[in-house]
Specification:
This protein is of the alpha+beta class. It is built from 13 helices and 22 strands.
C-alpha cells in the first residue's frame, strides 16, 4: 500500500517507520527543512523521551481521555520506547520521577535515532513540503502541498501536532484537515502553561520561588484540585511545576478560584500553637519578624497588605481574631485568577480531534476509512514527565501498525 504520513514529529516518524517496516510504500511530508523540530526543544533540549513506569502510572498522569490510550499503551508502552531507542544505538538513562532521557542529554540523539529508523525502513522523506489540503476520492487520498500534488495514496496518517510552539511548525493544520473530513474538534486550550493573575503585587515579587507548598483550585466554590510542590511568581502571574500541571486540570473550567497553602504539612491547630509559642518567646517582636519564620521575606509585604496590618505592629497586641486571620491566610492565601497564558506558550495543546470519532485500537477515523490520527492532534494530553511524548510514540506506533 502507498501511505502518506503528514508531520515529521515524534508520532509521525514513529508511524512512518513502523508502517514502512510492515512493507508499505511510505511518503513522510514535513513542512520544515528538518525533522523533529519540537523534539529538539523538549526537556530543555535534553528530551524527556518517556516515563519509565507502568501503563497504570502513565494513565494516571493523563489529564484528558486516559481510557482512550489503554490499547495504544498495551501495544507500545514506556519499556518498549526505551528498548526501541537502545536498539537503535541510543542508550537511555532514568532519573528522578522515572523520567527517561538519552544518556548524552542531547535531544538531537533522539532525532538521529528516529531518522535512522526511517532510513533503515526506506521511508521517503519530503522536507519543506507543507501540506495544504488532503482529499479523498474513491478511497484514494491526494496530498496537496506547497510543492505540488501527490496522488494515489491508499491511506493517510495525520500527525500534525498541536498549536503550541508554533515556531516549530505546529500551526494547527491537522485540525482543519480533520474538520474537512467531518471530524469534531474539541476546543483548543493551552496545557502545561503559566497562569495569569490580576494581583498587582506579583510584579514586585517576580522570580520568587515557593517550595513545599500546596496550590488549590476551586471551581464554583468547591475544591477541584490540590497539588503539592514548587511554584514561582512571574511578572504576570505564577509558573513552575505545580502551576503548569494545575493549568492542564483547570483549562476547561470556569469560575476558578486559586489559593496557596504555605504550610500544607501543618494543621490550623498546630499553626496556632506555633504562633502562640513564638509570641510568648518575644512579645516585643514586630509582626514582620514573626512572619519571617513562616514566609519568604519577599512575600511578607503582600501578606501584611492582605491582613491590613502595618509591619511594625507588635505581636503582643495581636488578638484572637488577628491570629485566626494570619492562620487562614497561611493556609488559604487567595490569588485572583485571570486565565491562562497564550496558547502558544503551552508545552502541550489540550483539545483536538474528538477521540469518540477515532478507533482506539487502530487510531483509524470512524468517519473515513484508512484515515488515521496520532499524537498531539488528538484530544489527549498529560502532565510533564515524559508522558506526552509516550502518547505520541504509542499512538504513532498503533497507527503505523494498523495500515494493512
Amino acid at each position: 500500500m502507498r501511505v502518506a504520513i503528514i508531520g515529521g514529529g515524534a508520532s509521525g516518524m514513529m508511524a512512518a517507520g513502523i508502517c514502512a517496516k510492515n512493507g508499505n510504500e511510505v511518503d513522510l511530508f514535513e513542512a520544515n527543512n528538518k525533522l523533529g523540530k519540537k523534539i529538539f526543544i523538549t526537556g530543555k533540549g535534553r528530551c524527556n523521551v518517556t516515563n519509565c513506569s507502568s501503563n497504570e502510572n502513565i494513565l494516571n498522569n493523563v489529564v484528558n481521555n486516559s481510557k482512550f490510550l489503554y490499547s495504544a499503551l498495551n501495544a507500545f508502552g514506556s519499556y518498549d520506547t526505551i528498548s526501541f531507542f537502545e536498539d537503535l544505538g541510543t542508550p537511555i538513562k532514568v532519573e528522578r520521577g522515572e523520567r527517561a532521557f538519552p544518556m548524552s542529554d542531547k535531544s538531537s540523539d533522539i532525532i538521529k535515532a528516529l531518522t535512522k529508523f526511517l532510513s533503515i525502513n526506506r521511508v521517503n522523506i519530503l522536507l519543506d513540503n507543507k501540506v495544504t489540503h488532503i482529499t479523498n476520492k474513491e478511497n484514494m487520498f491526494t496530498i496537496i502541498t506547497n510543492c505540488g500534488t501527490y496522488n494515489n495514496y491508499d491511506a493517510t496518517i495525520c500527525c500534525t501536532g498541536g498549536l503550541t510552539y508554533s515556531a516549530t511548525g505546529s500551526t494547527g493544520d491537522g485540525y482543519n484537515f480533520a474538520k474537512n473530513f467531518g471530524h469534531t474538534i474539541i476546543d483548543l486550550k493551552a496545557g502545561l502553561v503559566p497562569i495569569l493573575l490580576k494581583d498587582t503585587f506579583v510584579k514586585n515579587i517576580e522570580g520568587l520561588s515557593l517550595k513545599n507548598v500546596a496550590l488549590k483550585a476551586y471551581v464554583n466554590k468547591k475544591l477541584y484540585k490540590e497539588l503539592f510542590g514548587e511554584m514561582l511568581f512571574t511578572s504576570k502571574g505564577i509558573s513552575g511545576p505545580i502551576v503548569l500541571s494545575m493549568s492542564s486540570f483547570i483549562n476547561r473550567q470556569s469560575n476558578v478560584d486559586l489559593y496557596i497553602d504555605f504550610k500544607p504539612a501543618l494543621s490550623y491547630e498546630k499553626l496556632l500553637a506555633r504562633l502562640k509559642r513564638d509570641i510568648d518567646n518575644n512579645k516585643q517582636m514586630q509582626i514582620s519578624s514573626l512572619l519571617a519564620g513562616l514566609l519568604p521575606k519577599a512575600f511578607i509585604e503582600p501578606f501584611l497588605y492582605k491582613l491590613n496590618i502595618e509591619k511594625t505592629y507588635k505581636v503582643k497586641t495581636l488578638n484572637a481574631i488577628h491570629l485566626t486571620n494570619i492562620i487562614t491566610l497561611l493556609k488559604q492565601f487567595p490569588l485572583t485568577f485571570d486565565g491562562l497564558d497564550k496558547l502558544d506558550f503551552g508545552i502541550i495543546t489540550s483539545g483536538g480531534v474528538n477521540i469518540k470519532e477515532i478507533n482506539p485500537k487502530t487510531m483509524e477515523s470512524k468517519l473515513v476509512k484508512r484515515l488515521y490520527f496520532a499524537g498531539e492532534v488528538l484530544d489527549v494530553d498529560a502532565l510533564t514527565g515524559g508522558f506526552n511524548l509516550q502518547i505520541a510514540f504509542s499512538t504513532g506506533y498503533v497507527a503505523g501498525n494498523s495500515v494493512k
